[in-house]
Amino acid sequence: MTPTPATDDQRLAAQGDLHELIRIARERGELEVIKGVNTYLEMGALYELSLRDRYPPLLLFEDIPGYPKGHRVLMNVRFSRIFQSDLSLDALKKFRARRRWEADPIPPEYVTSGPITENIVRGKDVNIRAFPAGHWHEHDGGPYIGTECLIINKDPDSDWVNLGTYRTQVQDEKTLTVFIEPGKHGSVIREKYWAKGQACPMVVCVGQAPILGVVASTSSKHGMSELDSAGGRLGKPIKVIRGELTGLPIPADAEVAFEGFMPPPSEETRPEGPFAEWPGYYATDAGDEPVVRVGAIYHRNNPILIGQPPAKPTFPGRQPSLAGMAAIWDALEAAGVPGVTGVWKPLGPGVGFMNVISIKQMHPGHAKMAGLVATGAGPSSYMGRITVIVDDDIDVTSTAEVLWALATRWDPKTQTDIIDGCYSGYIDPLISPEKRAVNDHTTARVIMYAVKPYHWKDKFPVVNTVSKDYSQEIETKWKDKLRFLGGNNPNP
Ligand SMILES: Cc1cc2nc3c(=O)[nH]c(=O)nc-3n(C[C@H](O)[C@H](O)[C@H](O)COP(=O)(O)O)c2cc1C
Ligand SMILES: [Mn+2]
Question: Which atom from ligand 1 is nearest to the alpha carbon of 187?
C-alpha cells in the first residue's frame, strides 16, 4: 500500500503537536499500536521489520513490560507518510521552491506551566530507568533513551539557546551520557563552561513536537536558536517553561525532559556506545564521554518517548529525504554551476556516500565543474565518497538509468577523478584503525563523469528508445484497449 500524501494542513498540525500527529495517523490508518513488547532488542527488531515499507507506519508501543503503565514509545515519526513527500524530481523541485519563502524566525514564549509540568520529580526521587529506553541493536552498549531527542544548552556569552539531536545513553538511575561530535554547537557551548572549570547546564528532551526534532537535527547558523526557527516554521512561538535548576527553556508541551549539569570530562566520563550507526555498521568501540547528572525530571502523565535509532540504509523505509538533495542543488547553484536538471541520492548509500547530479552540458569542462563543486560543497562533502554526473536525459531517480549511464557513457580511464583526504566522519566504516588512532577522519572521493564526452557528444550513438511524445500519444490511443496499459482488451 502506498498511502496518499498528507495535506499541507495535516502536515503543519502534526509538525506542531505529537498528539495531533498520532490522531491524524490513526485517522489515515497509518498507526500501529503494539502492546507487550520488550525494550531489549524486540522493539528494535519490530522497528526494522517496519522499514520493509517505503512509508512505514507510526509504531506506538504500549504496556511495555517492566515500565509504569501508560509510559509509551513512538517510532517512525520522521519517516511517516505524513511528513514524507513523494520521492520524485517534481516533489524535489516543489520542495526547493516552497522552502525559499521560509518564514522569519519567531522567538519562544515563556509560560509558567504546561503539560510537561504535570509531574516534576526532583533530587533523590529521580529515576531515569522508570522511562522505557530501547536497547535497539544486539551490540549496542546499553539502552538509548535519546535518539530523536533535543539536547538544550545556552551559550554563556550570549542569549543563544541551541537545540541539537545527539544520541543519549542511560548509564544509571541519575546519569546519562550524550555523544556530541566535536564542532557541533552543543559541544562548542559546553566547552565554554568547561574552560572556566564549570559544569554545563543541560536539558535532554526525549518526546516533543516533531518540528523540534527536525530543527534540532538540521544544521543552522552559529548563534541561531533552533527554537526560533521552529516557531517561524509553525507560524507561532514555541511555548517553553524555565527549568528550575538551570533556567533553560523546556518545551511546555514536551513529553519527558531531564534537567541537569554536564561536568568537564576531567571530572567524570563513562564508557559510551558502541552504537549501531546509520551507515549500517558499528564503526567504533565504546569511548569515554561526559555525563549529565540529572537533578530533575519533568514529564506529562502517560508520556510518549520518541525512538528513532539508525538502521542499515538499504531498507526501503530509509529513503533519503528531499531536504538533503535540495541542499546540494542549492549549493551547486550558489557556486554558479549552470544547467543542473536533477540531484538525487539513491537508496542504499543512505544520507551520505553517493550523490547523482544531472546536467544539460553547455560547454567543455561543464561536467567537471559540477563534479568538483558537488564533491566539495558543504551539504555533500561530509561522507560524500561517490559523485556521479549524468546527462539531462538520464532520470536521476532511477538507479537503473544511472547504472546504464555509467555502463555506457563512462570511460573509467579518462572520465574519473579521485581526490584524496576529503571530509569524513568517525562513523565511516572505511576509516582504518591506523587513521582513527591519529584522528585522521578523511577518505578519498571518486567523481564519475557518466556523460557523453562534450567534444564529440553530437556524434555519440543515438539512444534506442521511443521518443517521449510519441510514446505518450500511443499510450493514450491504446490505454483503454490493452490490459498491460490498465485497460480492458475486447479480444482477450
Ligand atoms: C536521529 C538523529 C541522530 C543523531 N545523532 C547524533 C549524535 O549522536 N551525535 C551528533 O553529533 N550528531 C547527531 N546527529 C546529527 C545532529 O543532530 C546534527 O548535526 C545537528 O545539526 C546538530 O545540531 P547543531 O548544528 O546545533 O550542533 C543526529 C541526527 C539525527 C537525525
Ligand atoms: Mn545549532
Answer: 27
